[in-house]
From TrEMBL:
<keyword id="KW-0238">DNA-binding</keyword>
<dbReference type="InterPro" id="IPR009057">
    <property type="entry name" value="Homeodomain-like_sf"/>
</dbReference>
<dbReference type="GO" id="GO:0003700">
    <property type="term" value="F:DNA-binding transcription factor activity"/>
</dbReference>
<keyword id="KW-0804">Transcription</keyword>
<dbReference type="InterPro" id="IPR050204">
    <property type="entry name" value="AraC_XylS_family_regulators"/>
</dbReference>
<protein>
    <submittedName>
        <fullName>AraC family transcriptional regulator</fullName>
    </submittedName>
</protein>
<dbReference type="Pfam" id="PF12833">
    <property type="entry name" value="HTH_18"/>
</dbReference>
<dbReference type="GO" id="GO:0043565">
    <property type="term" value="F:sequence-specific DNA binding"/>
</dbReference>
<feature type="domain" description="HTH araC/xylS-type">
    <location>
        <begin position="160"/>
        <end position="257"/>
    </location>
</feature>
<dbReference type="InterPro" id="IPR018060">
    <property type="entry name" value="HTH_AraC"/>
</dbReference>
<keyword id="KW-0805">Transcription regulation</keyword>
Length: 273
C-alpha cells in the first residue's frame, strides 16, 4: 500500500511484503489514501472487490480490477479493498524500460486501466505465502505487460567480480571507477554489461541492495539509524528519503505491521526480469 501526502495518516501495511532486487511485491488489504506519487511503476491487482482509483484530473474515482500506475504519477485510492497485490518495479532497470517501451505513455487514468486489463487472467486466488510462489507471480505480471526478453544464461566474470565487490562494500562510497577497476574491466564496458546481467544500472542496483540490507536489519530489531549505517546510508533520514521516493511510504510505516519475506542465499533475488 501507499501513504498520502505529508500531514496525512499513513495507511497500514498488515499484509505480506516480498522484496527483491529492483522489485517489491505487497499482498494484503488496501485502505484509502490521499493523493500521492512514487518513483516506481506500480502494478495494482485486486483479488476481490474492485479498486477505487482516482487520478489528479478526475472529479470522481473509477472502479477497476487492475491498473498500472506509471512512475511519479499522482493518484489516490478512494476506498478500501480487502485483498490486493501491489507490484513495484524500478523504472530505470530492464523491466522498467520494457514497460515504458511497450505500454507507451500512460497519461490518463483510462490508460492505467487499459494496461491493467491484460492482468485479469493472471490473478491468483490468494496472496502468495512464500518466495517460491511470489516470484513466478510477479514474473507473469511483467510478461503479460511486456514481451519477455532473453537474458544471458551465464554471468560475465567481470560482472561476478563487480557484484561481489559491491556486496562487500555497501557501507562505503561505491563509485563506478572503483567497481570497474576491481572487476578488471573498463567503466564503459561495465556500464553496458551490468544491466544485461543484474537488470539494473549500477546506481539503482546499489540502492536496492542497500534497501534490502536495511530492511533485513530492521527485521532483526535494529533501529532506523543502525540499519541505515549498516546498509551504507548516511543516516536514518537518508534511508527514509530513498525508501519513500521509490515506494511512497516510510520504513516506519511498514515495520512491525507487514510480514517481510526476503530471498534466501539460494533464491534468485529478482522477483521479475
Amino acid at each position: 500500500m501507499t501513504m498520502g501526502t505529508p500531514g496525512t495518516e499513513p495507511t497500514s501495511w498488515n499484509g505480506r511484503l516480498f522484496m527483491g532486487t529492483g522489485t517489491l511485491l505487497y499482498g494484503g488489504p488496501v485502505r484509502a489514501t490521499a493523493l500521492h506519487a512514487h518513483h516506481a511503476f506500480q502494478v495494482m491487482v485486486s483479488l476481490g472487490s474492485p479498486l477505487h482509483l482516482r487520478g489528479p484530473r478526475q472529479d470522481s474515482a473509477v472502479q477497476c480490477q487492475a491498473a498500472v500506475i506509471p512512475p511519479d504519477a499522482l493518484h489516490e485510492v478512494t476506498a478500501p479493498s480487502p485483498s490486493v497485490l501491489l507490484l513495484y518495479l524500478d523504472p530505470d532497470g530492464l523491466v522498467g524500460r520494457r514497460l515504458r517501451r511497450e505500454l507507451g505513455p500512460l497519461v490518463e487514468t483510462s490508460d492505467w486501466l487499459r494496461a491493467g486489463r491484460t492482468l485479469w487472467t493472471r490473478t491468483p486466488r490468494a496472496v502468495p505465502e512464500t518466495w517460491a510462489q511470489a516470484r513466478p507471480l510477479a514474473q507473469s505480471f511483467v510478461d503479460a505487460l511486456a514481451s519477455p526478453e532473453s537474458r544471458p544464461q551465464v554471468i560475465h566474470p567481470a560482472v561476478q567480480r563487480a557484484v561481489r565487490f559491491v556486496a562487500a562494500n555497501l557501507e562505503g562510497d561505491i563509485r563506478l571507477g572503483a567497481v570497474a577497476e576491481h572487476a578488471e574491466i573498463s567503466p564503459g564496458r561495465l556500464t553496458h554489461l551490468l544491466p544485461q546481467h543484474v537488470g539494473l544500472p549500477l546506481r539503482p542496483y546499489v540502492a536496492w541492495l542497500r534497501l534490502q540490507r536495511a530492511v533485513a536489519r530492521l527485521r532483526e530489531g535494529a533501529t532506523l539509524t543502525e540499519s541505515a549505517h549498516h546498509a551504507g546510508f548516511t543516516d536514518g533520514a537518508h534511508l527514509t528519503r530513498i525508501f519513500r521516493r521509490m515506494f511512497g511510504i516510510r520504513p516506519s510505516d511498514v515495520m512491525g505491521r507487514a510480514e517481510w519475506v526476503l530471498p534466501t542465499p539460494t533464491d534468485d533475488d529478482a522477483l521479475a526480469k
